[in-house]
Automatic annotation (TrEMBL):
Designated name of the protein: Arsenate reductase family protein
Organism: Actinomadura logoneensis
PROSITE patterns reported for this sequence: ARSC
InterPro entries according to UniProt: Arsenate_reductase-like (IPR006660), Thioredoxin-like_sf (IPR036249)
Family membership noted in the UniProt record: Belongs to the ArsC family.
Amino acid sequence: MEIWHNPRCSKSRAAKAALDEAGVAYTERRYLDQPPTAEEFDRTLTAIGAEPWDVARLGEPVAKELDLRNLPHDRAKWIEVMVANPVLIQRPIIVTDTAALVARDPQSVRQALDGA
């Protein structure tokens, strides 16, 4: 199990704490420092069942600078932009051997633990 974590984010810290409390083994990936490759992000999006625009943080200043809201929904282009600017990726993301999900609430973290 891997958590794409941003320690400055309260939702991300809560998900990490829940994993710690559950006593599961996981790898912490500080994705702002270690962004996913385009291939990793593509695989993770497929596992989530989402498109990149579904997990984009459109309120970030860089999203506004790039006019991301108006970028045509071209999956490859969005992936390229988001891995080049990982702050745009919603957090936290928990990746297991069989699934991935955006774990912004306790129910999602439990779902990840149940599927681990």
